[in-house]
Every structure is written in structure tokens, then in C-alpha cells.
Amino acid sequence: MRRRILLPLRSFFMQPAVQGLGPFVLLVIVWALVVELEVYPRAFFPGPLDVLRAFGSLVYKGILPTYLQDSVTRLAVGAGVGMLVGVPLGLLIGLHPASYRFFWPLIIFFQAIGDIAWLPILLIWFGFTLTTMTFVIVYTVIFPMIFNAALGVRTVPVEMIRAAQSLGASPWRILVEVLIPGALPNIITGLRNGLGYGWRALIAAEIIVGTSGIGFMMFDARRSGSVVEMILGMIVLGILWYVVDAGVLRPAERATIERWGLVRQVP
């Protein structure tokens, strides 16, 4: 009987998703302990239960779901445009040496200009609008996509291209079946970096120019000195990125580059 009970429990705790919660459980325990010891005043450093109550209150009022939907929608639109433009442009630059020599200095130049540096002039051009935030996200996402797509194409071994040519493959088939799959590890890396940078840029833009969203919620909480809402916003940001990484990026990697044997899965 004891064995029948322990085996399912052991199987449950061996699940990757459950094991991934271990560090967070430890973090919450340490957090609660620091609060109970009153190392800092509770008004400046609320505990997990305070954040949980704030979460329930904001969800009940409909504030948090609305702001979260606004942030996710803005990120999806900006990231989608950045990917649709960045990946083809990066492939084009990587495929043609002349294009690479011409565009690469421009890419390095504009990539060095931070997205937030554009906000003052964007506010003059477009004001406190969705266009301003979309531009910031697209600008942040597009350069990692271009950079990694071009790098991925240029690092495909020339032997693979010559082997495909010797078998009679057309230029289109070489592109679709050799170059793009070979560049996918870099493209996925660019997507991961671009989404991460875009998410942070969105929060910064919402703090400065937004009237809704998680970044606006965190910045607006400063008026009432509600540290609990600020911490809640940070937790929501971290959880949302964890969900995107585990639910979108990792499955995309498994379905493409790991399935094709282009990278080795780390145990």
C-alpha cells in the first residue's frame, strides 16, 4: 500500500514543471521569513499574502486582466511586425555579400541606439499614442532578429550547400531545405532575445507614455505609495515571460532545431 502511494507521488515530483517550481517555493519562503522578522517596515516590503490579496482585489475589480490584455496585445503586435520584417531582411542580408557589407554598419549603428532614446522624438511625432509604443517594440525586436538571421545564414557550412547543389537542388530548395533550417538556431535565439528586449521596452514605454498596461499600473502605484502593487506587477511580468518561454519558445525549439538534430538538448 505504501509503495502504491509513494510511486505516484515520486512520479509527480519528478515532472519538469514541478521541479521548476522548486526555486520559486524557496524564494517565497525566504521572502515570507524576511517579512515576518520585520527586517524592513511592512509598508515598504509587503509579504506574499499581501501581494496575493492585492492580486485578488485587482482581478475582482477587472483592473489587472484589462491591463494585462493591453500589454500582451501591444507586445504581440510589435513583435509580430518585427519578426515579419526582421527575419526576411536578415536572411537577405546574410545571403548576399554585397548587402551584408552595405547594411551591416547601419544595423550596428542603430542597434547601439537604445529604444528609450527614441521616446522624446516619438512623443513629438506621434504623442502619447499606441503608435509610439508600437514603434518602440518593433525597433527593439527587429534588430536581434536581423542580426541573428543574417548570422545564421552565414554560418551554414558551405559543404552542405555544395552537397545540395551536387544533388541537383534548385536555389529555392537550397534556401528552404538547407539555409533556413541551418539558420534556425540563430533565428530562435533572435526571437528569444527580441521578445525579451521588446517586453522590457514595452514596460518602459508604458511607464512613460502609457495610460494602461502593467508598466502603467506599476508606475501609477507610486502616487499612493502602494509598494504591494509594484511588486505584484513585477511578479506578473516574470510569470508571463516564464509562460511565454515554456509555452511558446521551448515547444518551437523542440519542434524544429532539436527535432532536426541541429542542437543537442542539455539534460
How would you characterize the overall build of this protein?
By secondary structure, the chain is an all-alpha fold. The radius of gyration is 23 Å and the shape is elongated. The protein is built from twelve helices and no strands. 80% of the residues lie in helices and 0% in strands. The longest helix has 39 residues. It has a single domain, classed as MetI-like (MetI-like fold, Orthogonal Bundle), CATH 1.10.3720.10. 29% of the residues are buried. About 2% of the residues have low confidence.
Give the SSE map.
Blueprint: H1 2-13, H2 16-20, H3 22-36, H4 48-61, H5 63-95, H6 97-111, H7 119-126, H8 130-154, H9 158-166, H10 171-209, H11 214-220, H12 227-258
Helix pairs in contact: 4-12, 5-6, 5-8, 5-10, 5-11, 6-8, 7-8, 8-10, 9-10, 10-11, 10-12, 11-12
**What is the number of independent domains?**
1
Helix content: over 70%
The percent range for strand residues is: under 5%
Rg over CA atoms: 23 Å
Q: Please, what is the CATH homologous superfamily?
A: MetI-like
E-strand count: 0
Main pleated sheet? none
Overall pLDDT, averaged?
80
Which structural class is indicated by helix and strand composition?
Answer: mainly alpha
CATH architecture: Orthogonal Bundle
